[in-house]
Amino acid sequence: MTKLTIPRWAWAITGSGHYIKETFALLRELENLDLFLSKAAGEVLRMYKQELNLPKSVRVFQDKTASAAPIGQFYYGVYHTAVVGPATSNAVAKFVYGLSDDLVSNVFAHAGKTRVPILVFACDTAPELLTEAPKSMVKVYPRPIDLENREKLGRFAGVTAVDSPAELAEAIARRRAELRP
Length: 181
What we know:
Blueprint: E1 8-13, H1 20-27, E2 33-37, H2 39-47, E3 59-62, E4 79-87, H3 89-97, H4 103-113, E5 118-122, E6 129-132, E7 137-140, H5 144-153, E8 159-162, H6 165-179
Helix pairs in contact: 3-5
């Protein structure tokens, strides 16, 4: 693996299609990016016919190792910021309860362990949501536990939890401003 001298964004995508097109529009604007795809993210990208079309500088890591080997890069200063989004209710629950059993939950856990700021765009954020499914718009009714976990995540030190693509764009802009010399 090539030695990197410029810290990068680490962006992890779970198995949700919730605002996936808007999410990709945001991540395509970033330079020095590593993209971490869960197994489910690969399936969702195919279902939504979402092409990666990423700049050549983007490195893509897929959930193919039992130990989430690419995560070790957090310990060598490779990342200045971790973004998870869209984040399913399953991913958010793992984050809240300290589970790190796949690539995305390991991105979250090890970013936290190395004090890398984390931005999370959660999917299940209101009692009723309208979201794009592969064939049409659908209504989704998150469970009370999903909403409770989103609230808990918002209180984590070092984590900025957001509920919309617009809020994610604002959080990224704030982080970019913090990173400017």
